[in-house]
Design goal:
By secondary structure, this protein is an all-alpha fold. It has one helix spanning 14-92. The chain crosses the membrane at residues 23-43, 50-70.
């Protein structure tokens, strides 16, 4: 049987099946590449979100450190004012 003869009971030639196989492999490989691209995009977004949350964590630590410094400064100023008021009260008496 030559390649151009019909298969028994079908209306398709061997070349048609070869083209469909080629088309199926091409679509399958395209889908694999497409999903690979989506996976790559997902990993990129995930890493970006990790970096984004890392930046927020850094910002949070920076704000916390600033708050602690501000709190220490206010506490120190309050202690100093309390001490100064105590001295002024002692002087006024």
């Amino acid at each position: 049987m030559s390649l151009r003869e019909h298969f028994p009971g079908t209306g398709f030639r061997l070349e048609d099946f070869s083209f469909l196989d080629y088309l199926g492999y091409w679509i399958l490989s395209s889908r694999v590449l497409y999903f690979s691209f989506l996976d790559y995009l997902g990993y990129w977004i995930l890493s970006f979100r990790v970096l984004y949350f890392g930046f927020l964590d850094y910002l949070g630590y920076w704000i916390s450190a600033s708050w602690i410094i501000w709190d220490i400064g206010v506490w120190g100023e309050f202690t100093l004012n309390k001490h100064n008021n105590f001295i002024l009260v002692q002087i006024n008496k």
